[in-house]
Amino acid sequence: MRTFETIGEGFDASVGPGRLDAGSARGVGAKVAAWFLPDLALVCALAAMISLFAGFGGATALFRDSDAGWHIRNGESILAHRALPVTDAFSFSKQGAPWIAWEWGSDLLMGAIHRAGGLDGVACLFGLGIGAAVWMWFRLNRAAGGSFPLAAAFAGPTIATSSIHWLARPHVFGWLFLIAAVWWCEKAPARLTPGGACAIALVSAAWANLHGSFLLGPAILLIYAAGAGLAIALWGVQRPVAPYLYLQAALAAVLGSFLNPYGWRLHQHVLAYLTDSALLRRVGEFQSFDFHSAGAGWVIAALCIGLLGGAAALSIRRPERFLLALAMTAAALVSARSLPLAAMALLPLANGSITEVVSLAGGLRPRLRRHLDRALIYSEKLGVFDRKVHGLALVPLAAVLLFAVMRGHAAFPADQIPVAAAERIASLPASARIFSTDKFGGYLIYRFSARRSVFFDGRSDFYGVNFIDGYARMFEARPAWRQEFERWNFTHALLPPDAPLAAALEASGWHELYRDRTAVLLARTVESLVQGLAPGNTLTRGHVGQVANLPHGAAVGACPLGRRPMGREADGTRAHHHNFRCGLDLRGPADMVSLRSHGGAASGAPYFHNGCRARFDRRTNDSQGGSQVGRRAGKRHSERRHPRREGRAQPRGSLSRERQ
Predict the structure, then answer these.
(1) Which of 31, 179, 453, 581 could be a cystine partner for 633, CB 3.0 to 4.6 Å?
(2) 493 φ, ψ (degrees, to nearest 5)
(3) 522, 511 in Cβ contact below 8 A?
(4) Are residues 357 and 461 in the same domain?
(5) How far apart are the first and last CA of the chain?
(6) Residue 637 and residue 570: Cα distance in Å, rounded?
(7) Does residue 360 share a domain with residue 227?
(8) In whole angstroms, what is the distance from residue 403 CA to residue 322 CA?
(9) Is 12 helix (H, G, I), strand (E, B) or coil?
(10) Could you give the maximum distance between any two Cα atoms of the chain, in Å?
(11) Whether residue 470 sits in one domain with residue 382
């Protein structure tokens, strides 16, 4: 019970009403100032965004992964049709195949932002998302009982490790939910109310519709339930939060995740994808990180701190932190994609565990103990001051300034994405079948607003193992690559200049339409068409169409098998025509294959006679010729070049084959 003297301590009778009003004014001023003075979390979040757009490569660095392209176009398609896609509309290789757009919520958000602000708006969205993740990371340090100096020290490894996936892709939203899940587990209430359970379910539903990492939510809750149970079993420590509360929360999270357009099929699809080791071995971001690369020291430091924190957690009887450290470190060593998750979840917990171990450490030399105590007291004072401010009023201002600074600068990086080559592709017919890498395919979907179908893009879960194996066989020009390549009837190829397939196609006679340091665009020629046929195969109008669809400037008349290249002007340059007809020069040698060039409709559509087929026989090899292909372009052309034989009229579109 407090005495009168105690109550009256510090009371100054000289303080009048005016001084009380002044104190109240100072209190109001302090509250207002708290909205404009940033805390450490906001300072580091702003520093991370400045680092992203000033030192990390600018807004273009966010789009170095072209998957952002098809995410944006899918979101715009959802907005336009007011429905989710059911089948694939982006590729010609699997057009019409069933497709689960499992990140449709993020796609919708990206599409809406892109409609309003273009790529600048999308870059601003993900820049703010990365800043929000850093802000939440610092707040998690405080929730875990970490010290102020250690939080500042651990910020470097965390930001450096997470920066490997600073991309305009939905996984950034997954980071926010991951930190929120660990935060809730650290500050879980002693009792889960029905309202709290509903809130967990709604958050889990939002996570499930934005990114496939939603399964981490129930998994983390189960780990904390197991840790609380182990603490009771091993040390008899009864925590304020019982294990069953985490189980209840995990059940609410699981039930909430079913609130998505696909229901249980979403869970089945995500689990099938993440457990398909054969497929994940073929996806680059699921491979182990290269610890010999530049800057790998930051990543190693983050993993070591996480493991050290796990060991410290055991000493303070927090087995749930130890279990989480083991699980996430193992995932980070297996897959580079899990490295940012480990840094963001484990380092704040390591801060809290290490701080508590240091504060409780006994048996130390008195001088060392005094220094540690002073450091802890100083850290606590800094934390008290830091908790008095937050600076949230600066966030809208920072967002406006961020958008203004980057306006007009957000773009796909031309040194990694075929931005310039796409301008040349724009002149090709819409029916052109272009072989391209998955990275190039994602950009082509964006560049042509999904009006031009692609062969391959970054949706590895959609294409599957067999397709990716066939793609790899072609791209690396492995044995039997030509059979796989010809199966798709490609008319063009867009490849990195150093790709093995690019060299193989050029050696097969493919014509170069465009080249820069990023990409080379090749087009099929008559020579490559003939070389692509196996002995005894048939040259169909579909094969001829692959050449007939070539754009202006392609070397369709320069086939070395033909003795007299057709379609050339008097000065030796090839004449540009809109239409081509396949014809045979009967007066030439037997191994002559030529494309007769006739001025046609400006539409550029190829012209074929009905029933156009010709047998191609190869006696020896390509260099020796041996092919006999006969075809007449039409009645008028045939009568002009080759008079009709008596008693045998040859109908329009028929084929002839003569021996020399």
Answers:
(1) 581
(2) -140, 130
(3) yes
(4) no
(5) 123
(6) 22
(7) yes
(8) 41
(9) coil
(10) 135
(11) no
Dump the DSSP string for 129-144: HHHHHHHHHHHHHHHT
Distances (CA, A) of 531 to 36, 526, 582, 618, 630: 71, 9, 17, 10, 17
State the total domains in the chain.
3
Consecutive H or E run containing 476: none
d(Cα 112, Cα 105) in Å, to the nearest integer?
Answer: 11
Structure tokens at 322: 């130890």
Residue 441 lies in a domain: yes
Residue 257 and residue 105 in contact, taking contact as beta carbons nearer than 8 Å:
no
Whether residue 399 sits in one domain with residue 422? no
Number of Cβ atoms within 10 Å of the Cβ of 510: 26
**Do 127 and 260 fall into the same domain?**
yes
Q: Is residue 437 part of a domain?
A: yes
Pairwise CA distance, residues 134 & 43, whole Å: 10
Residue 494's DSSP bridge partners are: 436, 521
DSSP strands (E only) in 424-541: 434-436, 492-495, 511-515, 520-523, 538-540
Q: How many alpha carbons fall within 13 Å on the CB side of residue 123?
A: 29
How many CB atoms lie under 10 A from the CB of residue 585? 16
Kindly report the length of the chain: 660
**Closest residue by Cα to residue 344 from 464, 174, 507:** 174
Looking at every residue in the chain, the average pLDDT score rounds to: 80
CA separation (Å) from 506 to 107, 509, 654? 38, 5, 33
Tokens for 391, please give them.
């600076």
Question: Is 6 inside any structural domain?
Answer: no
Measured between alpha carbons, how far is 388 from 36 in angstroms, rounded to an integer? 11
> Domain residues for 659?
548-660
**pTM for the predicted model, two decimal places:** 0.79
Distance between CA 158 and CA 350 in Å, rounded?
Answer: 12
Digit-coded pLDDT (tens) for 103-124: 999 999 999 999 999 999 999 9
Q: Tokens at residue 360, please?
A: 């409780």
pLDDT for 401-429, tens place per residue? 877 777 778 999 999 999 999 999 999 99
Cβ pair 525, 553 in contact under 8 A = no
- Determine whether 50 is exposed, middle or buried from the number of CB atoms within 10 Å of its CB (0-12, 13-18, 19+): middle
